[in-house]
Amino acid sequence: MNQRSWAGLALAAPALAIVVVFFAGPLAMSAILAFRGRDGGFTTAHFEKAFELYSTDLLFSAAIVVLSTAAIAVVAIAIAGYLTLGEHPRTQAILRWLYRWPLFIPFIVTAQVMRTFLAKNGMLNHVLIGGGLIDPLQAQSMLDWRGIVVAFVWKQAPFVTLLLAGAMAAIDRQHIEAARNLGAGRLRVLFEIVLPQARRTLMVGLVLSFVTMLSVLSVPMMINPNSPTMLTVDIAYRINSHGDYAVANALCLMSLALASVGAWFYVREAARKAERG
Amino acid sequence: MAQTPVAAPYLHADAVSVSYGATRVLDRVSLTVARGELVALLGSSGCGKTTLLRSIAGFVVPTEGRIVVDGRDITRLPPEARGTAMMFQSYALWPHMNVAANIGYGLRMRGKPRDEIAKRVGEMLRLLQLEGYGERTIGALSGGQKQRVALGRALAVDPSVLLLDEPMSNLDYRVRLELRHELRALQQRVGITAIYVTHDREEALTLADRIAVIDAGRIAQLGTPDEVFHRPVSPFVAGFMGADNAIDVVRSGDAWSWPASAGPGGARARAHFRADRARLAPPGTDGGRGTLAIDGTVGQRVYLGTQYRYRIHAGADDFWVEDAERREEGAPVRALVPPEALLVFPAAA
Fold this sequence. Notes:
Chain A is mainly alpha-helical.
């Protein structure tokens, strides 16, 4: 290795050390402990126990996050599409100002907001009853899987919208005009001209949201802590109530496997982007 | 404003005005275009020519006036309902579709069956000499090929009016020259009604049946290329069409003389002439009857290849003359402008 290479390595060393010590190290330790028995030997017992106790929650987590990701995509496309193709500047300005608010609200506050909004005696039911849309006896709590999905979408849709609207705004305006000029209505322009060109940005935003939602504890803990619930609640429960770090580590790795699906999409998109230069 | 009458108006923009906030971009512009005619909108940047084109396409809604195509008032119709097709300056080809999908998009929007679309796309590819390019991606095309694809996409839908927004401004000079003639031949062969926006005088003269010179949101002159070039109705049009040498002259008998201040007190005027219509001669040379003689010195020399372009200082006046003979800067010369090369306008108040 020549002198120049050493100098480059020395420059990168502090950043590399931080990544190894604070990220790779703990992750590797967690993985090792998930397979280490009381006697210090290799075991899959923690995974067997995790599957036995929490396989429903694993599926529940995957279903919640996939459903939320799909709903986020719909909301983000609708808002970003209107911001790009809408024809009422004032409405667009109001929407542009409003949709970003949840970006600045922490997940735990979002969860609390949803509790007061979606509970049986919450604001949503009050509005529905007041509007004569439902009978008071029909009012029901939505503080279950629906509440988690609503909270996730409410919190994450603005983030994806922000990325997507930026990507859509970067598209040459004449691309849109050319399609309209040839007879395409705005909906067709959105799905056939604008969205395909912003597809990669949408995908990246959704993958990042997917992984973020998998890691959120506060929302399922406050809205739907009872079984079936999300893996994050189970991990916290194993540690706080049982001091069972081994099963918690196994659950963490299961969670990581789910996130890896998203990461695979992200890396694939990044590689394609790099290929295009 | 001079306007050549059109026998059978197919497109009629009637007193169209467009304002962006307090700025009036088009001011009661009226334009008629006959079926199968190509009219060039010629003007400098910001004069309103593209705005007029976009008003016809439906991307800009006029604040006043109306636009009628083939007897149908399209002023308030959305762009997708107008039946016009626009070719954009950037071509605006969709990179996520291949060449065939780009060309066939308008037909798909019209609900044409798949085999009919494929047939028409094939015809367009043949017409534009792009056979075998249907499956290519847009990124794999050269500038000239992109221009052809954009033209094919616009022509494929058999539009009522073809609108071209500076379609050659992104091309190399040589490609532009070649495509200019191709485009004109194609437009005549297809017989389509077209409006062509450009700031390039030569392009307008080569391509158009008629030229509308636009200045500050108004049509300064509308006429055949010959009329606009040889008989400009205002100093602006004369300058824009290349007669950008302008000097004050005075009436002396049946001719014009220079300098205006030394004349016998006849009518004064502003004379425009083109640099290539004047010639340089030694001081004192008699140019013949009616020829305007201007004495000055060579201020600057620019080599053009086949000849030189000289900046001549003549008293308070400065103008350019093209001449084959090499002359040194500072040399005294007499510029001779034949009477038929003079475009004379009333002196500014």
